[in-house]
Amino acid sequence: MCATDAVPVKKVLVSDLDGTLLGGDEDSRRRLRRALDRHRDITVVYATGRSLASVRSLLAEDLLVPWPQWIIADVGASVIDTADMSHCEPLETALRTGWPGERRVRQALGRFPQLVYQDAVTQEGRCSYYLAGGEPSDEITAAVEALGCSWTHSADLYFDVLPPRAGKGPALRELMRHLHWPREDLLVAGDSLNDLSLFRLGVHGVVVGNAEPALAAQVAGDPRVHRPALEGAGAVLDALERLGWVRAPRRVVIGYHRPPWQRCEGRWRPPASPNGILPTLVSVLGADTGELDAVWAAATTEDAATAATIPPGLPLRLLPLPAGQWAGYFHRACKETLWPALTSQAHLIRHDPAAWADYEAVNAAFARHVSAHAEYGGTVWLHDYNLWLVPALLRQHRPDLAVGLFHHTPFPDPQTFRRLPEAERLCASLAQLDWAGFHTAGFAENFRSLLAGAARIPRTGVHPLGIDRRAVASLARARARAAAATGTDGGEDRVILSVERLDYAKAPVHKIHALGHVLNAHPALRGRTRFRLVCPPPEKGIHAYDTTRAELEAAIAELNGHWRSEDGWEPVEYITTALPFEEVVDHYLAADVFWVTSLADGMNLTAQEYVTAQAATGGSGVLVLSCHAGAADYVKGHALLTDPHSPHDLAEKLRAALAMTPAQGRAHTARLARLLEAPAPAEWARGIVAAIGEGGGCRSAPAGS
């Protein structure tokens, strides 16, 4: 194929193979491979005396050799684009100009008995010999020059006859011109005199410690060439580190399927809310804290060059994925197969083999990505069902790591889980964890019951995630003062509020029907009560909630059409855009009732935000909380809990909340604020990292269990 358009690259490593990239001990080669896996913005080019056939065999057999984007083979007579393993004909035509052909070369040199042709080596555009007896004689070199050819002699053994314009250096020069690579972005590495022409290009260089003394002597005094004592791959890695092109692996790797910041219109943007797992982890990874020697590994559909441009101060390492693969993995396998089981809606499980293949592929790529960034004996903290296959892969390839996974979602009972088509494989992978974390004891018990009888039983921990209460309270007080100063703190008589993403698990249609029952039974609320539903749609491409959206919009239209008054009052205000967090807090302060009706849920941080905002401003708002939300475990007996599976209970608890007096509401909110106190998010995260590392691995199941 031979790409003709310049592809933006960050850095380029051009390395000889034998003695250089393949040199050094196995540990050095493994560390170099992982470093290059961590830094996919580094383009790898082989510059080798091997043929393409030999290189392809090497790639198939040697798991430690990094995959190249380009191959300069046949001592610089061949250039191959590995996108399709095709020869780059425009470059090779230029390099091989003047080549008389193998037959003429062998005829001309056949009279020299000290030259032994390498019959066992596949050769293109060159003739390679073994040369016994040291340096080539003047007669030999004169015969080569009479053919109009060039030659190289290396390791006191190898003698290569090349076209007059060929060689590793000339081939790289042509490739640099072809792809517009600047000199300052290249590092060349070699160990023998046939690599010398690479070092003549004015680029960064490294001569490995096991190199021919003659090569080291030729580049002595060149400030651009590094000459460490390390051999092979160890020297190459040392040079990459000295140039600042690679970073060392981290003690802790946080694995989450998406980055904490999102790209929007070509720019990175931080999370809108101070709460949730994304800002929580940023709080312990930011440049100002330095509390965890950690890196965040995430996936992106951006290209490798764009993905390398990350927010300053954030130790983020992105794994580029094709957009189509992401859609199969996240939009379908995660949302249409796994999510229904997690939310105990097993009848909605849809299994697409092609999408599941994408899930497997992304998990495998993620395991390699995490492994490349984790130092030996490090800690890996995975998050959620999106990465359920990663634990088994890490156990297989990196048994030195302590691996934990925290579930921010509900975890279903074993019977529901086992309705997943791939349940057994998922269970086998989850059993390879060292630690599994949950928001509630009930979720943890479901997990232990699922794995009962497994040979490996992960330790479990219950760590409910709270919010940044100080930040929410401070913002609420500031917004309340601003509203009072501008006279905008009034409004409708009664406001019911829900803030949630569009998801059948949030039971939005159940809410509309319950509100209709309340309005039917209590005429006094008509015209004086409004339900404000802030419910933005999911990520584009997710269709798992299309039915819910259609049913919700139809139910709202029917209810508003039935109760719409002559002065324009409607019972439901439906907001489908994601709001800035400041505006969300404004809605919290204006709401008399905050209504959470999840069929299954994690902690539900919006409920905590509402309670905190109301308590900070002396508000009298009332929380109606689903008994299936994680937060319900911590407020039982004190909160107004509702069961969304019971239409009567939904309507009755909403009516009860609306009937509370302001004094009752203030007492209710103050009590919940005390009950929902939890460790600060940063402290929560540090505690989990410590919990994963405790014990040094999984415990075995007791005999007979």
UniProtKB/TrEMBL annotation:
Determine the domain of life of the protein's source.
Bacteria
The signal sequence is none
- Ranges for the Sucrose phosphatase-like domain? 10-242
Supply the Pfam families for this chain. Glyco_transf_20, S6PP
Coiled-coil positions are none
* Family affiliation: Belongs to the glycosyltransferase 20 family.
Q: What protein name is recorded for this chain? A: Trehalose-6-phosphate synthase
Lineage start: Bacteria, Bacillati, Actinomycetota, Actinomycetes, Kitasatosporales
